[in-house]
Amino acid sequence: MNTDLDDPRLTAVGLLAEAYTGLMNRFAAQFDEHRLSSVEFEVLMRLARSPGNRLRMTDLAGQTTLSTSGVTRVVDRMEKGGLVRREACASDRRSSYAVISEAGMQRLDEVLPGHLELVQQWYVGLLPPERLDQLLGSLRTIRDAVNPCAVAGSEEPIQPAA
Description:
Blueprint: H1 8-33, H2 38-48, E1 54-56, H3 57-63, H4 68-80, E2 84-88, E3 96-100, H5 102-122, H6 129-146
Antiparallel strand pairs: 1-3, 2-3
């Protein structure tokens, strides 16, 4: 059995986890100020950046860190708060869309300037442009391999709701 605890593969995974945890900790206080969890922010961002400001619930699950049932619970909570709404899928009665509401867009508009400042200060601003481009390319390669559903629904043509 290999017990090489200095294996660079362990270092690579550890550094990624530590960087992610550190960033999420920096973001948490700002999300709290705006009465959002990090998951709710992620849902709002995914919906706002998607065609028609909406995604099928299954695609939203694939793009986030949530299971299908987890997305259902978060969308239920966000719908009660007026941040999103559901729309029926015209082509598949079993599916529904989560759609960002005007209140959700307004909340995102309130959060985004401070969030972008934190992203600049603690992430992208720490790297020169060429290293940032390399990092983003590397992260996309890894993401596409380990989570091919991460862009599901992002470029689908939108079917009008019934």
